[in-house]
Amino acid sequence: MDNSNPGVTFDDSGQCTCCRDALARKPHEWWPTNEGRIRLNSTIERIKREMADRPYDVIIGLSGGVDSAYVAHMLRRDFALRILAIHVDGGWNTEAAVRNIELLVRKLDIDLHTHVVEWHEMRDLQLAYLKASVLNQDAPQDHAFFSALYRLAHKYGQRYFLGGMNFSSESVYIPEGGYPAMDARNLRAIHRAHGSIALQTFPTLGSLEYLWLARIRKQIQILKPLNYLPYDKEAAKRELLETYGFVDYGSKHQESRFTKFYQEIYLPARYGFDKRRLHLSALIVSGQMTRDEALQELKVPLTTQEQAARDKRFVAKKLGITVSELERLITLPVVPHERFANNQTLYRINQRFRKIVGSRR
User: Which helix (H) or strand (E) holds 269?
Assistant: First the structure.
């Protein structure tokens, strides 16, 4: 990390607050030993018994990326689980992601439910976010995924979602550095201010309903099986390549063309923020990379001028605007999410409550 982002400070040894926090959580969130495997085996056996009379044992998300693909591969290979894979198509899938999903579903013989978001609504919502000039431009995609997940879990009577989220490569984040994608009130307010058509089918989940389902009722238990393994993303990628002919699509979370644009062009241009710093710092925390190796990797440009031009042309054409209009939107003054109606106070109360409960365990 560096000191270019508010909220990141360094101690006398040069260690940042984000990495110090991740190292403190490491013994409680990642078990890359035999103890972790025993815990995972026990959890899976309990789920199998509990879900024996249901059509599936678990649901998983399948984005076409490495982490979720490895979860599907490992759960079928090691546990022969009956899996329902869910994919939310927001219109930005890369060809590699689509091919990876097809390969995995066919070779693992698992069922796939794809929820396709109406493109004209997604397009209008994402244009509204760009015009609003707020930080979390990925919120429409993330909100659609989790809203669809809860609705489909209810439809299929499922209780367990096993995701590709993992400590090994995602442990480092900036405290209060983002904005929650599940704030439906904020999403609707941004769209009211800058959208042009009604959102009639876009999947949304109100903040109170989300907190009730996720935090209190716990309709779905979200588990992170990769946290019980010595998960190494590069080794996982090689295994998927050898087993399925998996296609490497590039950097983390770039199975979406919009996320690629967001991480490589939008965030650096507006905030001077390179998300590789978070990813590489997480690999240092998990012992898979040294700080010198990470610094060497950061010397490689995030993208090239030619690639950035291609990405901007693709995003502009997809959104139905010119490249010059897209570039104008990128340079608008930064506007905080809180400028629009929101439930941020509700989320802060929930965070404090969870922190208090967590500290007493």
Answer: helix 267-271
